[in-house]
């Protein structure tokens, strides 16, 4: 035991100097080394701050069948805010949603900051999430670009209008405006000419709607027809000629756009299928299958269904004991049925060849009382002229539009 103790003391005295030597070398090495920056701690702090202040947005486009409550629930809108919005001044704008409407939900971490709703290019509404929701609606004013075009007919009005650079929608509107006086299928002649001034709304360089006609002029067989746009005090839009007479008649001249007459009104016509003399008490318009068929006047549908040789047929009762008939249809408008009220120009069906028909076409009849009348020759009743109270404002509008049209016409002529 004595020998062991002696060895332990000796080892102890040997270990102390060795340990001191190692410590001196270690601290000397530490003094010569560069002390690293505390970048790890700093980045950790920054990361924690960014997580606590994370801003992001959720986008949602409304689809068919969507409801506001479901959309809000899926996007973590607090129930109390949903209730306040549904009781607020813009409840109809939020509740009456259409496919294509867009929502943007702004968040800070898990807290909703703001909801934005876009319903088309001109409607923007936002609501801040607070005890009392704060609303802001932006009224976006589009820029109206005006264009003037003119042309002369060689073969057809539609082809001449396209060659003049007129958009398809404006061509159709122009034909509709003059459709009460001119049958664009039957009355057009080579050498007829036209002018049109229209404006197209743009927002941030993008077109948001089709062009709207301000002024149109059509020379048909040396007869001049004019159309001037006028907004009445009620805000309703009308078109009148230079004398203040309404372009609108109680009936359109034709139920189709840009078809052609394949068979005229003829009480002694030989039927192509029955091969015997059978009165043709209307007009046949040849057109492609599924071409839209329009009601020529305002009225009520009194028949929609199969009618012997007529096939699928629609009959409409109008004022003044007038009825119209549209036969050989491929199908009916899904929005209408017997008893439905229709406006002039409403699509009621589509061209087909049902019943006794050899090819797709529309058979159209115009009846006054019990008398069937030739739709191409009957004198259509006029609509009422401009109100005398509106006449001064109309004359001012007319003067401005005619001056602008004249200047643009001269500019284009000089440029060419």
> Gap between N and C termini, in Å?
128 Å
CATH architecture of the largest domain: Roll
In what range is the share of β-strand residues? 25-35%
Largest sheet: 10 strands, antiparallel
Order of helices and strands: HHEHHHEEEEEHHEEEEEEEEEEEEEEEH
Overall shape: it is globular
- How many helical elements? 8
Count of extended strands: 21
Helical content, roughly?
Answer: 25-40%
Alpha carbon gyration radius:
39 Å
What does this protein look like?
The protein is α+β, with helices and mostly antiparallel strands and 416 residues long. It has three domains: 52-139, Nuclear Transport Factor 2, Chain: A, CATH 3.10.450; 143-249 and 386-415, Nuclear Transport Factor 2, Chain: A (Roll); 260-373, Glucose Permease (Domain IIA) (Distorted Sandwich). The chain contains eight helices and 21 strands. The protein has helices spanning 2-32, 39-52, 68-74, 79-86, 91-95, 157-163, 168-177, 391-415; strands spanning 55-61, 102-108, 111-118, 123-128, 134-139, 143-152, 193-203, 206-207, 212-220, 223-231, 237-240, 260-263, 283-286, 292-294, 299-306, 312-317, 322-332, 341-342, 347-351, 361-368, 371-373. The chain is globular. Residues 1-10, 40-50, 260-274 and 276-280 have low confidence and may be disordered.
Quick rundown:
The chain has 416 residues and is of the alpha+beta class. The protein has helices at 2-32, 39-52, 68-74, 79-86, 91-95, 157-163, 168-177, 391-415, and strands at 55-61, 102-108, 111-118, 123-128, 134-139, 143-152, 193-203, 206-207, 212-220, 223-231, 237-240, 260-263, 283-286, 292-294, 299-306, 312-317, 322-332, 341-342, 347-351, 361-368, 371-373.
